[in-house]
Amino acid sequence: MRYNVIGVMSGTSLDGVDLAYCSFEKKENTWQYEIKVAKTYPYDARWQKELSTIETQSALQFVQLDNYLGIYLGKIINLFIEETGIDKNEIDAVSSHGHTIFHQPEKHFTSQIGSGAQICAETQLKTICDFRSLDVALGGEGAPLVPIGDLLLFQDYEYCLNLGGIANISHKSAFTISARDITFANMAGNYLCQQINLSYDEGGALAQSGYLDKELLAQLNETVHRINKEHLSLGKELFVQYIVPLLNSYEIPVKDKLHTLGVHIAKTIAEHTTENSKILVTGGGAYNNFWIDELKQQQRKVIVPNQELIDFKEALVFAFLGVLRLEKTSNCLSSVTRASKDNIGGCIYLP
């Protein structure tokens, strides 16, 4: 059976909403995919402010923003369909990750806003959302979720690395997979750039021009190592609690902090991979030439794919998670999340 699904991804870096209209078909027990059309709709300054500060607002404001974002996502999806000429009658579902605000699985909760009910009402399309909650209820981290896509869609790579707001990596061995978040990537880089009125370090040019601060590097490595011992998945709360104060405690140029951060990221990736291993790198950080060059210096075979896959792999995989939900097949793996069992995550809203 062939499925046509729109995957919707809003990442922690607050760049915007990624939409990917994808088709999936299973042939001889192997899933094949095609990204038919994809587009990013950037968040404007108002949405960036709302999403970056909502965790400090009231419960009423939180519920309101959940619904307002769902309406907004629904309107964006309708615009995407109109602008790209997609035949709406051929769409089987919308599969939306939502935008993570709270992620504290050790306290038994995770929260992604962007109401699926509102998306369904706006688009009049079957909508699948809330992929993490069941796994957390089963004692898991609810993250990372992308590895099921790495396992079934990208079998040619030993490691799949996503350099988004948070860097996460999956490792395939035969037909099993393990994965985890490993450090803060664009979340940290963008935070530093905002201190000098830049959105991000384009191409890693600022980091390249900076110098290594060995003391900051040692503290970054030690802090992230300690966090990783206690947490399988990372969230904004940990970044604000541990990384922001550390970065702010050093009175050195931002370019030096960016350089040191890049070295830290490359060394952390190296700790979670083997020498000469083949690593598929996607996410916004794949465009950071400094990060990629530093990783290559760790004797890793780094494969940076075409722009479409770099930008839309997560949206593609969340479309695929929706397909697995429709198939009533596990889309969240206990080997990755440490839940008590594999599970089928996702709530379905019908128009």
Mean pLDDT: 95
CATH-scheme architecture of the largest domain: 2-Layer Sandwich
In terms of per-residue confidence, which ranges show pLDDT below 50 for 5 or more consecutive residues? none
* CATH fold-level name of the largest domain: Nucleotidyltransferase, domain 5
- CATH class label of the largest domain: Alpha Beta
| Major beta sheet summary | 6 strands, mixed
CA-atom Rg in angstroms: 19 Å
Return the domain count.
Answer: 2
- What's the total count of β strands? 13
Class inferred from helices and paired strands: alpha/beta
Terminal CA distance:
22 Å
Could you name the CATH homologous superfamily of the largest domain?
A: ATPase, nucleotide binding domain
Supply the number of helical segments. Answer: 13
Tell the overall outline. Answer: globular
For the largest sheet, list the strands in their spatial order: 3-2-1-4-7-13
Beta-strand proportion? 15-25%
Order of helices and strands: EEEHHEEEHEHHEEEHHHHHEHEHHE
Helix fraction, binned, reads 40-55%
Describe this structure in words.
This protein has 351 residues and is of the alpha/beta class. The protein has 2 domains: 2-147 and 309-349, Nucleotidyltransferase, domain 5 (2-Layer Sandwich); 154-306, Nucleotidyltransferase, domain 5 (2-Layer Sandwich), CATH 3.30.420. The chain is built from 13 helices and 13 strands. The two termini are 22 Å apart.
In short:
By secondary structure, this protein is α/β, with parallel strands linked by helices. It has helices at 45-53, 59-84, 116-123, 133-137, 147-153, 186-194, 205-209, 214-230, 236-248, 254-271, 289-296, 307-326, 334-337, and strands spanning 2-10, 16-27, 30-42, 93-96, 99-104, 109-113, 127-129, 159-163, 166-173, 176-184, 278-282, 301-303, 347-349. The protein has two domains: 2-147 and 309-349, ATPase, nucleotide binding domain (Nucleotidyltransferase, domain 5, 2-Layer Sandwich); 154-306, ATPase, nucleotide binding domain (Nucleotidyltransferase, domain 5, 2-Layer Sandwich), CATH 3.30.420.
